[in-house]
Structure formats: structure tokens, C-alpha cells
Design a protein that fits this description.
The chain is mainly beta. The chain has five domains: 3-167 and 255-320, Galactose-binding domain-like (Jelly Rolls, Sandwich), CATH 2.60.120.260; 179-243, no CATH class; 351-434 and 446-465, no CATH class; 480-623, Sandwich (Jelly Rolls), CATH 2.60.120; 636-713, Immunoglobulin-like. 8% of the residues lie in helices and 41% in strands. Strands 3, 5, 6, 10, 17 and 19 form a six-stranded antiparallel sheet that branches. It has a six-stranded antiparallel sheet with strand order 30-29-32-27-34-35, with no helix packed on it. Strands 1-2-26-33-36 form a five-stranded antiparallel sheet, with no helix packed on it. The two termini are 47 Å apart. Residues 1-20 and 625-637 have low confidence and may be disordered.
Length: 715
């Protein structure tokens, strides 16, 4: 069964659902939102970014397809940041990019008042729009006779969590009632001297300060500070009343799973078109908003299960006059879904492993999802271009021309006749093979366009194909969390296969953050050999590891072995835990490698029941890449004596022959080759205050001798 169909079939009410002893949840912290929110708050506080405001009201037409790379909605069009603009949580959207409404707020955390009872969660609210008039080609009043329509696509769940039937998505319009209501109290700053007779007077807490001249004389302020002559004080001046605005319910959809939605409408996204007929909306301050009612698990569930849920995806929001009920098409050719990897099994793999058998490691062909959102057939051209980063290698593919019917008639382009060259193109070449480097990356750019010479429509999608020192089935974004229930030796194993014997240095893992870090447990990191397609004997066990997180967006935490392991063929990495609760390892819902995921809670190993790819990446290579030119071989150089190790704020070198050598050179590198510190001359103490927690390589060159050792920074 196609993975996309399988995903839609199985992810029904995934949040907190259990299949035997296996479970899957939403995420509780959206790191992309959290980091962007912190960045914006810091920039506004420091004055680098002005607080965004939209002083001029919007004019028709209003349109957004959420194809930008921003995390939050475009503030020129939308007011607020609770919706999440992304390319990950939708399932087969009409174009690449949607606005997702869920149970996570604008700071990236589950709403503080979230409960099992439906609560008000996200909203996507427009800025004020001039619906009183249009100004082109000539200025004139707008009225219901101008055939004003709002349309949008929507979808429940996507690849995330399905809204329950008591959850909902709502569309509402703003309307003035004609009444005035209290908004806020206006204030002024005046000299405290105004309330004193001489410089020796004092204003005490709980004293009453009446509004000064020019303000409402019946307004007063209760003071809560000690004020003396020369101080300034803020006092209430007058009440501010504004026209009362209410939000009228216009449309809603009850919660359901994506498979139920597809069964009901025979498609994965549905377009809704609504006329605006009520004259109350034809004013200069019109707004519309989408919002969702969401619910999460109750207190009977463990904290690590309390996570995001009830997701809705919105796309192609379009408001304009001179439309009609059948105006549901756009002159657009578009890609849906992220561009795919050219590798047959992995998103990323070590370059050495690829070089050993490139033909087997490459796909023969791949799938592109192409839409024609117009109401007429287009003669389209498709091509892709591959270019190696920082090198001259590249190759191109041209798929020729093919007629593509409208999306509402045929859906995505099919892999038949000429459409096969566009929707299922071949991989035309292997990537470059260079024995002199240990890593490489390639930019793959896909293009779709029509054949017209004038007013051509074009879309593109980009994929970065990486060859680094690790294997990855995942794309690096956790839409879900996965785990196995059960204590007393529950095990999880993830299968990988080497093209040629190699060295295993450690394992990178990404655990989802949960409420109060409730999954911060200890476990044993285990490597198994293969037993006829399932985990066999334990090859290595690293005891007493702790669920930990690295700094940065979706950064994997590296768990490194004391000595590298020599591996051959198929092996498995994973853990054994004693805790019953959820470890909540990140799961990529857009790639399916469930056949590589195994778990055991008693005697037998079972395959995962849910589609997805775990965010677990073994670090593999005959050498650990420390820089572009110089690796550390698996046979170590002479060791340095580093203490304390783990270090917190500093470390010292214990080797007497280099600790006082002013010519010795010390370099600190991350596990992936980035130089983070360099100094000439070994000091008594080397500061680590500017380094994030994690594992580093300390390298010292003293004369003809080279020394290296791992350093763990833990705070």
C-alpha cells in the first residue's frame, strides 16, 4: 500500500492511542515556533525590530497561499502569531505550505489552559479590510451586488493528530453592533509636584490622585508608591470607549480523522466558497478569522502524553469581488509535498558507504506530486537540476512536455503516458564519487512550468541531498512522538545496513520535550547484531545514559561510545529502559520506515504498527570528521589527560610535556567538524563558558606529536 494512503488510514486519533504496548503522541513543544518567538521578542526588546503594526487597512483582493518560509503568518495580512506556517504537517496539500491551527500557542507550547474539555486554541485573524469601497479602476462603494466571495481550502489532521468529533474549526466575521463599549483607561504622566504644596511633602501608598486638568474630573488613581518632589507619576485620565464588535459564526466543521474526511468528500483537501451578502459587513473595518476548539488528554494520562493535537490545515485563502460560486480555480502550477531524496533507503548516509555501491544506494525513479489549479488544461514542462555544493559536478533531466488537466478533474499528475516523465521521473545519474573527501552535499532543484511564451507560470521545489557521517531515515522534523509502554527491560531497536564494513562512533537521538521534561529518564544505549532480519545478540551496551537535549532547532543529542565499534552488514541501535512511562522519541510522519523499527517488552520482537521514521541516527565512518582536511582515525593518537571531564566552566590539561609549552596549539571541535575554539599555548585552565553542552574533540599539536581526546560539557 502506498505510504501516503497507509498514513491516512492508520493515523486515526493518534494522540494517546495505544496499539498493544506501542503508542504515539503529538509534540508538546514546537521548537520552530519557540525559537522564532524568542528571536522576535528579543529583537523587539532591543529595538532591532519595530513592533509590527498595520496602520493602513487592506484593500481587495486579499490572498495568501502560505508558500513563504516564515514561521508565523504574514503580519501585513494577518493579526497575531498563534497559527503555524509550515510545509510539514499537511497531507497532500494543493501547494507547498499551509497554516496549521492546533493546541500550541504562539510561544511554541501547549496552551496553559488546555484541557480535555474543548477550549479556545489558535486563531488566524485578518487585518482590517476595506469592504466599504474599491479603488480600481475607479473608486466606488461596495455592496452585496458586487458578488463578494471568501474561499479557502481546509483539512483536518494532516500527518498530525485528528481532531475529535467534539473539536471544531470555525470561520467568523466581525460586525459592529452600533453600541459603544469600554475599551481601556487612558492615562497621562505628570509631575508628582502637582499634588504637593512644597518640596517637603510626600505622597504615600493608597493616597488618591485625582485626574489633572484636561482629563475627566471624576476619574482618580490609587497610588501604590512613595513619591517625593520631582518624581513623575502615571495617573488615569479618562475612559476610552470604542464601537462594539461581535463575531458572527459563518461556517464550521466538526472534528474528524483524515480518513473519515476523505471518505466523506473523496479528497484530502476541500475548498469552501462563501458569499458575503449581509450589508453589516460592508464597512472599512471588516475582519474574518479562523479559530479552532481543541482538547488534550485529561489528568489520568502521564505528563509525557500531554501533547499537541487537533490539527487543522488551511490554504489558499482568497477574498475578492466579481466572483461567483464556481470561482474555485487559480492560474497556478504547483508542487505538493517536499521534494524527495534520490537515495533508495535514506535521507542522509555516509559518503564512504554511498561510494562503495552507488547504484544500489540510488533510486531508479521517484514521485513528484504536481497540481494544475487552473480551470483549463496546461501543456507543462518539467525538469530537475543537480549541482554539487562547492564543486563542479552536476547533471540535468528534462522531462519534455505533457498536457496536465485541472486538479479538480484528475487530482495530482499521474504516472501514465507522458505524465510518467513528470510525476515519476528517473534518476539520471549517480552522484559524484570522490575518494579524497568524507562528506558532500548536492542541491536538487525541481521546476514545473507551462509552455506559453508570455505570462508563463512556474513553480520550484528544492532538496539538499547530504552525505555526512551518519545515517538518517528521517527529514529532521518530528511531527509526532513514538514510544513503547512497559517497564523492566522494554527495548527498542532501529535497523541499519552498511554497504561495507565501517566504524560506529555513537548514536544521535532527538527526544521530544514534554511537560516539565517528564521523559528525562535513564536508559542503556544498545547495539545489536542481526538475526535473520530482527535484532540478535547484544553487541555493545553503554549503561546509564540520560534523555538529553542539544541547543538549536531540532538538534540531535550525540551519545558517544568510549571506543568506536567495528561493524559489518546489518546492525541495530536503540535502548533498554526500566521506566514504564513514555520516552517520546521524535517521529517524522513524512517518511515511512516502520519496517526498520522493532520493539520488545517480553520475549518476542515486533515491528512498529505506525508509519513513520524515528529521529535516531547512528554516527558512522572509518574516520570521525573533524575538519574538511583532517580526520581523526579510528586508531587514536596519543591521549590527553583532561580534567575535570565532564567539564562545566573550564578544563585543564594534565600532560606535563605540553601543559607549559607556549608553542603547543589547542583546538576544540564539535563532533561534526566545526572548529569552535583555537588557542596557541596551553593555559592552566581552558574556558568552556562559550560552548553549549555536548560532546567535543580536544586536539593538541605539540611539535611532532598530536594528541586528541573527547570532552563532555555538562551543566
Amino acid at each position: 500500500m502506498n505510504f501516503k494512503i497507509l498514513l491516512a488510514t492508520l493515523l486515526i486519533g493518534i494522540c494517546y492511542s495505544v496499539f498493544a504496548q506501542e503508542y504515539i503522541t503529538g509534540i508538546q513543544v514546537n521548537e520552530a515556533i519557540e525559537l522564532e518567538w524568542r528571536k522576535i521578542a528579543l529583537e523587539e526588546e532591543s529595538g532591532i525590530r519595530s513592533i509590527e503594526s498595520n496602520e493602513e487597512h487592506l484593500l481587495l483582493p486579499f490572498f495568501d497561499d502560505f508558500s513563504t518560509t516564515t514561521i508565523f503568518p504574514n503580519q501585513k495580512l494577518w493579526d497575531g502569531r498563534s497559527a503555524f506556517v509550515n510545509k510539514d504537517f499537511s497531507y497532500m496539500p494543493v501547494n507547498l505550505g499551509v497554516a496549521t491551527l492546533d493546541a500550541i500557542d504562539s510561544t511554541g507550547r501547549v496552551y496553559k489552559d488546555a484541557s480535555w474539555v474543548p477550549f479556545k486554541a489558535d486563531q488566524l485573524m485578518s487585518q482590517p479590510i476595506r469592504l466599504d469601497s474599491i479603488f480600481s479602476p475607479v473608486a466606488r462603494k461596495l455592496s452585496p451586488e458586487d458578488s463578494l466571495y471568501l474561499s479557502f481550502y481546509y483539512q483536518p489532521q494532516g500527518v498530525g493528530d485528528a481532531p475529535e468529533s467534539h473539536d471544531s474549526l470555525l470561520l467568523e466575521y466581525s460586525r459592529f453592533t452600533g453600541n459603544m463599549v469600554f475599551s481601556h483607561m487612558d492615562s497621562v504622566i505628570v509631575a508628582a509636584d502637582l499634588y504637593m504644596q512644597n518640596p517637603s511633602d510626600t505622597i504615600w501608598p493608597l493616597d488618591t490622585l485625582w485626574a489633572p486638568t484636561g482629563c475627566n474630573p471624576i476619574i482618580f488613581t490609587i497610588n501604590y508608591k512613595i513619591l517625593v518632589w520631582g518624581d513623575l507619576v502615571e495617573v488615569a485620565c479618562d475612559s476610552v470607549f470604542v464601537p462594539e464588535v461581535v463575531w458572527d459564526p459563518i461556517w464550521n466543521s466538526e472534528g474528524m480523522s483524515l480518513s473519515e474526511f476523505n471518505e466523506k468528500y473523496s479528497r484530502d483537501m476541500v475548498q469552501v466558497t462563501i458569499p458575503i451578502l449581509d450589508t453589516n459587513y460592508f464597512n472599512s473595518e471588516f475582519r474574518f478569522r479562523f479559530r479552532n476548539l481543541a482538547s488534550i488528554s485529561n489528568d489520568n494520562y502521564p505528563p509525557s502524553w500531554k501533547s499537541n493535537g487537533d490539527q487543522w490545515n488551511i490554504d489558499y485563502v482568497y477574498l475578492n469581488n466579481n466572483r461567483f460560486i464556481g470561482d474555485t480555480t487559480y492560474r497556478v502550477l504547483s508542487f505538493s509535498q517536499r521534494a524527495p531524496s534520490f537515495l533508495s533507503n535514506y535521507e542522509v548516509m555516509p559518503y564512504r558507504q554511498y561510494r562503495y555501491n552507488p547504484t544500489v544506494n540510488m533510486q531508479q525513479e521517484f514521485r513528484m506530486y504536481i497540481t494544475n489549479l487552473d480551470n483549463i488544461e496546461h501543456n507543462t514542462k518539467y525538469s530537475y537540476h543537480v549541482k554539487q555544493v562547492n564543486a563542479d559536478f552536476g547533471f540535468n533531466y528534462f522531462g519534455g512536455s505533457c498536457n496536465l488537466k485541472p486538479f479538480y478533474e484528475v487530482g495530482f499528475q499521474e504516472c501514465v503516458d507522458c505524465g510518467k516523465a513528470h510525476a515519476c521521473p528517473p534518476v539520471m545519474s549517480n552522484f559524484a564519487i570522490d575518494d579524497n573527501i568524507d562528506s558532500a552535499s548536492f542541491i536538487i532543484t525541481h521546476y514545473i512550468s507551462d509552455s506559453s511564451d508570455q505570462y508563463s507560470i512556474v513553480d520550484s521545489a528544492i532538496y539538499r541531498q547530504g552525505f555526512y557521517n551518519y545515517y538518517a531515515y528521517d527529514d529532521g522534523v518530528p511531527e509526532l512522538g513514538w514510544g513503547v509502554d512497559g517497564a523492566g527491560g522494554a527495548q527498542v531497536a532501529y535497523q541499519f545496513t552498511l554497504s561495507t564494513p565501517d566504524t560506529l562512533w555513537g548514536v544521535q537521538m532527538y527526544f521530544n520535550r514534554t511537560l516539565n521534561d517528564a521523559n528525562e529518564f535513564y536508559f542503556d544505549l544498545i547495539v545489536w547484531d542481526d538475526n535473520d532480519g530482527k535484532p540478535g545478540e547484544i553487541y555493545h551496551r553503554l549503561e546509564g545514559q540520560k534523555v538529553s537535549w542539544a541547543e538549536g532547532l531540532y538538534s540531535f543529542y550525540p551519545y558517544m561510545f568510549d571506543d568506536p565499534l567495528f561493524m559489518v552488514g546489518t546492525f541495530y541501535v536503540g535502548w533498554e529502559k526500566d521506566e514504564k512511562d513514555n520516552f517520546n522519541i521524535g517521529m517524522d510522519a513524512n517518511n515511512n520506515r516502520q519496517d526498520k523499527i522493532f520493539y520488545k517488552t517480553n520475549i518476542d520482537w515486533f515491528n512498529a504498527s505506525y508509519p513513520g521514521a524515528l529521529l535516531i541516527r547512528p554516527i558512522v565512518g572509518s574516520s570521525l570528521i573533524l575538519s574538511e582536511s583532517e580526520p581523526i582515525n579510528s586508531v587514536r593518537n596519543q591521549n590527553i589527560k583532561i580534567y575535570p571531564n565532564p567539564a562545566s566552566t573550564y578544563f585543564s590539561i594534565g600532560n606535563k610535556d605540553i601543559s607549559n609549552n607556549p608553542k603547543a596549539e589547542l583546538t576544540i571541535l564539535s563532533m561534526f567538524g566545526q572548529k569552535v575554539h583555537y588557542q596557541k599555548g596551553i593555559e592552566t585552565k581552558v574556558s568552556t563558558s562559550n560552548l553549549n553542552p555536548g560532546i567535543y574533540i580536544v586536539k593538541v599539536v605539540s611539535g611532532s606529536k598530536q594528541y586528541s581526546e573527547k570532552l563532555l560539557i555538562n551543566r
